[in-house]
Automatic annotation (TrEMBL):
Residues 136-226 form the Acyl-CoA oxidase/dehydrogenase middle domain. The keyword Flavoprotein applies. It catalyses: glutaryl-CoA + oxidized [electron-transfer flavoprotein] + 2 H(+) = (2E)-butenoyl-CoA + reduced [electron-transfer flavoprotein] + CO2. GO terms for molecular function: fatty-acyl-CoA binding; flavin adenine dinucleotide binding; glutaryl-CoA dehydrogenase activity. It comes from Pseudonocardia sulfidoxydans NBRC 16205. Its cofactor is FAD. Keywords: FAD, Flavoprotein, Oxidoreductase, Transit peptide. This is glutaryl-CoA dehydrogenase (ETF). Belongs to the acyl-CoA dehydrogenase family. The keyword Flavoprotein applies. One of its GO terms (biological process) is fatty acid beta-oxidation using acyl-CoA dehydrogenase.
Length: 392
């Protein structure tokens, strides 16, 4: 027996989106509409064929989502909440799109905006905001992932210049980037360097054979005696705290993005369960299916409430790193579980690229790992609770 009309959006069950201010809702809807017209029609094919839809980059620039939470230099200066909601819509299409925007805005652009010289900002930020240039962020190395203090890429003084040697890996946007923010050890500690594509000795190689984030460019960066002028140094970045601050910016977007991926997977499961008839009734009419749908919806709503709370803290300049860790830990883990559970409702069709849940589940395996693994964020929260650092 039908009780009422089904919900189009599972988040409407607890009316969570109703608390979002009208301006931010309008921005979110605009992003959703543009992506529906230009990204959703191609994303399954991009995932299947290991292709990043680079043709969308100028449109993302026109939309204003590249560095949208930054002020000046062609950036929109939006609230943290608006940025988070944009990330939610991007990842609802595919984690690869949100990853591109996160790296462009919260790693490449933010590193320049926060730590760069005025000349560096004027040269790169307007181009990056428009999508006329693409940026990447080189921190992770083959032997330094969760422990960035172990990076071996080194920059040494040579007269008035610097010489950069080493390599980076798992770098989103690396193979298509026009400029890289690269972190290296120096005699004065970790420093950041602006390295344009085409600089002699700087080459990239894309990583292939990925089972996750296939609609994203992931690359290795190599630096073979790359000579850089002193003006390439980020003057405000001294020590490891600088790149970690950038990562906190990107992790905030993940807190919202994971909700988008989970929402899309659950909506696909709801639509399929309503249309798929077995034993004379829609699959959605069976108790075990409704148990899955109800549990996922409650968890999804909880994840969005957490994201909204962290956005309010960030807009009030009160957000702490351990709070971001708690958000990434909870929301990505929740999203992985929802995507996997949604896949089961689709039965055998769930492994088809025609449907999004398994694609989201595969992508979220990368999101669970990058910018701090589940284990690392657990220990960050543990340290905040106990006052004891357990990494070493």
């Amino acid at each position: 027996m039908s009780v009422r009309s089904p919900l189009n959006d599972p988040l409407d069950l607890l009316e969570v989106p109703a608390d979002v201010p009208a301006e931010e809702r309008a921005i979110q809807q605009t992003v959703r509409d543009v992506l529906a017209d230009h990204a959703r029609p191609v994303i399954a094919d991009c995932f299947e064929n290991h292709r990043f839809p680079r043709e969308l980059v100028p449109r993302l620039g026109e939309l204003g989502v590249l560095g949208m939470h930054l002020d000046g230099y062609g950036c929109a200066g939006s609230s943290a909440l608006a940025y988070g909601l944009a990330c939610m819509e991007l990842e609802a299409v595919d984690s690869g799109l949100r990853s591109f925007v996160s790296v462009q805005g919260s790693l490449s652009m933010f590193s320049l905006h926060r730590f760069g010289s005025e000349e560096q900002k004027q040269e790169w930020l307007p181009q990056l905001a428009k999508g006329a240039a693409i940026g990447c962020f080189g921190l992770t190395e083959p032997d330094a992932g969760s422990d960035p203090s172990g990076i071996r890429t080194r920059a040494e003084r040579r007269g008035g210049d610097w010489v950069l040697r080493g390599s980076k890996t798992w770098i989103t946007n690396g193979g298509i980037a026009d400029v890289a923010t690269v972190w290296a050890t120096t005699e004065d500690g970790v420093r950041g360097f602006v390295v344009p594509r085409g600089t002699p000795g700087f080459v990239t190689r894309d990583i292939t054979g990925k089972l996750s984030l296939r609609a994203s460019v992931t690359s290795e960066l190599f630096f073979d005696d790359v000579r850089l002028p002193d003006s390439a140094v980020l003057p405000g970045a001294k020590g490891l705290r600088a790149p970690l601050t950038c990562l906190d910016e990107a992790r905030f977007g993940i807190v919202f993005g994971a909700v988008g991926a989970a929402r899309d997977a659950l909506q696909a499961a709801l639509a399929y369960a309503d249309s798929r008839v077995q034993f004379g009734r829609p699959v959605s009419g069976f108790q075990l299916t409704q148990r899955k749908l109800a549990g996922m919806t409650v968890e999804l709503s909880t994840a969005l409430l957490l994201a909204l709370h962290l956005a309010r803290l960030k807009d009030a300049d009160r957000l702490r790193p351990e709070q971001i860790s708690a958000g990434k830990l909870h929301n990505v883990r929740t999203a992985v579980e929802i995507a996997r559970e949604s896949r089961t409702i689709l039965g055998g069709n769930g492994i088809s690229g025609e449907y999004s849940p398994l694609r989201h589940a595969n992508n979220l395996e990368s999101v669970l790992t990058y910018e701090g693994t589940e284990e690392v964020h657990t220990l960050v929260v543990g340290a905040a609770l106990t006052g004891l650092q357990s990494f070493r």
